[in-house]
Every structure is written in structure tokens, then in C-alpha cells.
């Protein structure tokens, strides 16, 4: 009898802990190497990525540990699970003052997995590359 | 002994069962959907947004049937407070039948885009569009200007709000009817005006629209049974303010299984953006993709000369999605609040009941090849009933 009670109590505790824990799977800073391994990139956002409001993020690009400055980058993205793109058309540009690429106009409409694509349109053909970054939005 | 132990076990079990039903994380998520989480509406493009005189003036204009070509239609003719500021018609009927279902105005001040396709980026430019639309109020810009000037009460309150006098000299030479979105005759009359005159008319026209918008932004829904449930849940971790079926429906609504809360999120139960759920009619009604260019060129948009916003306050417009291919067949996610009073549903009022709406999602989400933003949804009859019961608590 006591064995059964113990099992029931342990089961209840287990369920309760599972319910209370709740994994906060949110992204704020993500690093990613480019498709042809030319660049290392870091997306750094002020707050964990969330839906509904504009996100304040910047982007760093390195090539063999050297900061890549003022190159042309095109940004796009979408939600593969739902087959739709970003709700806005974000712009990424080099900030001389901050020595970083600033992203403006980035917004997410739904929670879940999104892909952000950064097309590095460097002047040298050999330096052109693509970065695809998977991010989780809460 | 065994009786008291069993009772104790049952009590503990019941407590833990409740904890699992609505965990702290779930309650915290539900609070984000509560009306209490709705931030006060802000419209930097409208300097009269919080002006009490403008709100009163806007309210008078909202209910004034003289703002129509036949003197029978006002904003309130379609946005009737008896029906949660809709008209309960399949399609709006102003001076003639339109092609869209009338959206509720409840909490509309908190939206980013207006009309089902988001053709306008402010509440005031939306109001002006309806005043001019030949199927809605069919009123011209100069008619509105003459009306405000000739009605002494309107003229006085207008002058107090804008702190500028409307003079007879400004008005007397203007044609009775002239506007760019009207009949050919009225368009010709509009084109004959010089640039300065058109700007002067537009200024009065937009100020009237801003007053209407200031009033409309005050139209808000009261707390629903869902909001009261969330309050009690946050306080006591349990609540019976929603019955079992409604709570199951809420759980289902928030789940990945239904996917409802992906888009119907936040206190408006809308993510305020545009999705393709296969309600567009290719070649006839393509939704958002058809209005992108006109929004960008609109003289009454956030970046236009009649807007009071600084350019940096127009991010929604500056970073507008221009991908017409992606936006084809997309419409704004409807708010689900007060849904019991806002039938029929969808941008063209095609569904009379919520069961028809759910059936649409079940059917279209299974389509292969995939043609919309939906992921597969499967709900049995009991789940559908629970979902509808929950929606009616909003």
C-alpha cells in the first residue's frame, strides 16, 4: 500500500516539476559560420527575440579574425515551417561610429523557428558568401 | 488509517493536477493575452490623438449622416455600437454595396494597419478613405470643407482645435464638389484647382479625419470573461470562471496542435500582420499584395506632408514588406475579441458561424501542395466545440 502511495506521490511531483520548469528557449546572441566558411558572424540583439515589436539587433562579421567593415549585406528571412517570409523588409548597414552593422526594421510575427539570411555581397567574387542563421522567437 | 491516507493522496493529487493544468508559465503566457496587457494607443501621425475637443468633434462627425452624398450614411451606419461597431452584414453597405466585411472598431486604435488588406497606415487616413469611397460615404473633400465652414458649431470647434481661422475668402471660390477619388466630374473639378488650393483643402480634410480617428481610438472593449478568468488564475492559480469545455478550448487554442495562438496572439488576439490562409481569390481579390504600391505613394501616409510624425516614427511604413509574391492572398489577422458580436467572419464575410471558420482551417491546412501559411491542423468534433466555446468568452 505504502509503495503505491509513494509511486503516486513521486509521479505527481514529477508532473508538477515538469509543469513549473518550462524551458525558456529564447535567442539573443547567435553565432554562425558562412556557407563557404569564409566568414564568422554574430547576431547580437538587445533583448531576447520576440514577436510583435521591432527588434534592436546588430551584426558582426569577421574573416579570419579580422573585422569586415562596410561591405554590402542583403538581409532576408522567413519561417520554413509555415512557408512565409519576414513580415517586414529589414535593412542592414555599416555604422562607422559603432564599428558594427546595424539592423533596422526587423520584426517577427509568430513564435517559433525562423531563418535569417545574410547575403555578403563583397566586391571580390571570391568573398561573396551566404550566412543562414536559425533563431528561435518567443 | 488507510481511509485518511487515501484522502490525503487524493487531495495532493488534485493540487498537483491543477498545477499541471495551468502552470506558472502558461498563466504568464495567458496574461500577455489579457486586455490589461494592451498598451495605450499611440498615433504620432495625429497630433490631435489625445485632444479632448478633437475627440468630441470627431464623435460628432462619426455620427453625422450629412457626411455622405445622399445624406443617409455616416461612419456609424456600418460601425454600429449595437454590433460591436460592425454591421453584421456579409458585405458593407454604404451608398451602395462594397466588397469587404465591416471590421470592428473595438480597440482599433492599437492596430498598426487598417482595413483587411492594411491599405492605410493610420486611423485618420482610413477614416478619410471611407468618407471618399463611392461605395461608402461618397463624399468629396470640398463638400466636407463647406460643411465644416457652414455649420457654425463645427466651424467654431474646428478653429479652436487647429488654432487657425477658416475664412470666407478661402472657401467661397471652391467648387461645391471636388475630390480625386470621386466621379469624373468631381475629379475634373479637383484637377482645376491649383496646388495651393488643393493643399488647403487637404489640410482641413485631414484635420477632420484626425478628429474622427481621435474619437475612434477611444472605442475599446470591456474586459471579457476570459480576462476575468486570467486575473483569477494569476491570483489563485485556479479558476472556474470558464467552464471545463471553455478551459479545454483555451488550452487547445494556445497549443501547437491548433496553432491558433501563433497569429491570434496578444491582447487583441491578433499579431496585427498579414497571412495567407487561402481566403484570397486569385485574379479577383489578392489582398495585401494589391495595396503595397498605393500605401507607399499615399499622400496621407505616415511619411507624407499631412502626417505629424517624424520620419523615425514611421518604421512600419519604412520597412514595409514589398514582396508581392509572398503577400498575394494575405489579409490582416482579425482580432478575435468580441467575436460573438462580429459575425459573419473573414474579410468578405463568407462564413456565418465559427464552425464554418474552423472547418475552413481544417480543410485548407491539409492542402497539398501547400498553398498557404497554415500547418496541418486536425481537430475532432469535441475539440471544435471546446474551441468555439472558448472563443465565445472573448
Could you give a short account of the major beta sheet of chain B?
2 strands, antiparallel
Helix proportion range of chain B: 40-55%
Q: Biggest protein-protein interface?
A: A-B, 33 and 37 residues
Secondary-structure element series of chain A: HEEEEEEEEEE
**Large-scale geometry of chain A:** globular
Return Rg of chain A in Å. 21 Å
- Strand arrangement within the widest β-sheet of chain B reads 1-2
Average pLDDT score of chain A: 83
Structure description:
The complex is a heterodimer of chains A (138) and B (394). With 138 residues, chain A is mostly beta strands. Helix content of chain A is 14%, strand content 44%. Chain A has one domain: Macroglobulin (MG2) domain (Immunoglobulin-like, Sandwich), CATH 2.60.40. In chain A, strands 1, 2, 3, 4, 7 and 8 form a six-stranded antiparallel β-sheet that branches. The model of chain A is unreliable at 8-25 (pLDDT under 50). Chain B folds into two domains: 52-216, Cytochrome c-like domain (Cytochrome Bc1 Complex, Chain D, domain 2), CATH 1.10.760.10; 222-287 and 329-391, Cytochrome Bc1 Complex, Chain D, domain 2. Helices cover 44% and strands 2% of the residues of chain B. Chain B contains 18 helices and two strands. Chain B has helices at residues 2-21, 24-31, 52-62, 75-78, 123-132, 141-150, 152-162, 168-172, 184-192, 195-216, 225-236, 244-254, 260-263, 292-297, 315-318, 324-327, 354-364, 381-391, and strands at 274-276, 330-332. In chain B, helix 12 (244-254) packs across helix 18 (381-391). Chain B is globular, with a radius of gyration of 24 Å. Chain B starts with a helix and ends with a helix. The model of chain B is unreliable at 10-20 (pLDDT under 50). Chains A and B meet through helix 1 and strand 6 of A and helix 1, helix 2, strand 1 and helix 15 of B.
Amino acid at each position: 500500500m505504502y509503495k503505491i502511495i509513494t509511486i503516486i506521490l513521486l509521479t505527481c511531483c514529477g508532473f508538477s516539476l515538469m509543469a513549473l520548469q518550462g524551458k525558456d528557449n529564447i535567442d539573443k546572441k547567435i553565432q554562425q559560420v558562412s556557407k563557404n566558411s569564409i566568414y564568422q558572424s554574430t547576431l547580437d540583439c538587445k533583448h531576447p527575440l520576440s514577436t510583435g515589436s521591432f527588434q534592436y539587433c546588430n551584426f558582426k562579421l569577421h574573416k579570419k579574425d579580422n573585422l569586415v567593415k562596410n561591405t554590402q549585406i542583403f538581409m532576408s528571412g522567413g519561417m520554413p515551417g509555415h512557408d512565409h517570409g519576414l513580415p517586414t523588409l529589414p535593412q542592414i548597414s555599416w555604422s562607422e561610429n559603432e564599428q558594427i552593422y546595424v539592423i533596422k526594421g526587423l520584426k517577427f510575427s509568430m513564435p517559433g523557428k525562423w531563418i535569417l539570411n545574410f547575403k555578403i555581397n563583397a566586391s571580390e567574387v571570391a568573398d561573396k558568401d551566404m550566412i543562414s542563421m536559425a533563431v528561435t522567437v518567443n | 488509517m488507510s481511509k485518511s491516507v487515501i484522502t490525503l493522496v487524493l487531495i495532493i493529487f488534485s493540487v498537483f493536477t491543477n498545477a499541471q493544468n495551468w502552470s506558472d508559465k502558461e498563466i504568464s503566457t495567458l496574461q500577455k493575452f489579457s486586455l490589461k496587457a494592451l498598451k495605450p494607443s499611440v498615433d504620432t501621425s495625429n497630433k490631435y490623438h489625445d485632444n479632448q475637443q478633437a475627440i468630441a468633434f470627431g464623435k460628432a462627425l462619426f455620427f453625422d449622416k450629412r457626411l455622405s452624398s445622399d445624406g443617409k450614411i455616416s461612419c456609424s451606419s456600418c460601425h454600429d455600437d449595437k454590433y460591436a461597431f460592425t454591421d453584421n452584414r456579409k458585405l458593407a453597405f454604404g451608398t451602395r454595396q462594397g466588397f469587404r466585411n465591416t471590421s470592428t472598431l473595438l480597440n482599433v486604435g492599437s492596430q498598426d494597419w487598417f482595413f483587411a488588406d492594411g491599405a492605410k497606415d493610420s486611423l485618420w487616413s482610413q477614416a478619410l478613405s471611407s468618407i471618399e469611397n463611392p461605395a461608402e460615404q461618397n463624399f468629396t473633400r470640398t463638400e466636407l470643407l463647406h460643411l465644416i465652414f457652414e455649420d457654425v458649431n463645427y466651424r467654431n470647434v474646428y478653429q479652436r482645435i487647429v488654432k487657425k481661422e477658416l475664412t470666407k475668402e478661402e472657401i467661397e471660390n471652391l467648387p461645391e464638389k471636388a475630390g480625386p477619388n470621386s466621379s469624373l466630374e468631381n475629379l475634373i473639378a479637383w484637377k482645376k484647382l491649383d496646388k495651393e488650393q488643393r493643399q488647403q483643402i487637404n489640410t482641413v480634410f485631414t484635420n477632420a479625419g484626425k478628429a474622427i480617428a481621435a474619437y475612434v481610438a477611444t472605442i475599446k472593449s470591456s474586459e471579457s470573461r476570459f480576462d476575468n478568468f486570467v486575473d483569477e488564475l494569476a491570483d489563485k492559480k485556479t479558476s472556474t470562471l470558464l467552464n471545463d469545455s471553455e478551459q479545454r478550448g483555451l488550452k487547445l487554442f494556445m497549443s501547437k496542435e491548433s496553432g491558433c495562438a501563433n497569429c491570434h496572439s496578444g491582447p487583441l488576439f491578433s499579431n496585427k500582420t498579414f497571412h495567407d490562409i487561402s481566403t484570397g481569390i486569385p485574379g479577383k481579390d489578392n489582398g495585401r499584395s494589391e495595396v503595397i504600391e498605393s500605401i507607399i505613394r499615399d499622400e496621407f501616409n505616415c511619411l507624407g506632408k499631412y502626417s505629424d510624425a517624424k520620419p523615425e516614427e514611421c518604421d512600419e511604413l519604412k520597412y514595409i514588406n514589398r514582396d508581392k509574391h509572398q503577400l498575394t492572398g494575405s489579409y490582416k489577422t482579425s482580432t478575435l475579441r468580441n467575436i460573438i458580436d462580429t459575425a459573419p467572419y473573414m474579410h468578405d464575410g463568407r462564413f456565418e458561424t465559427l464552425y464554418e471558420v474552423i472547418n475552413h482551417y481544417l480543410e485548407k491546412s491539409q492542402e497539398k501542395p501547400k498553398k498557404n501559411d497554415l500547418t496541418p491542423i486536425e481537430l475532432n468534433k469535441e475539440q471544435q466545440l471546446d474551441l468555439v466555446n472558448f472563443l465565445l468568452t472573448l
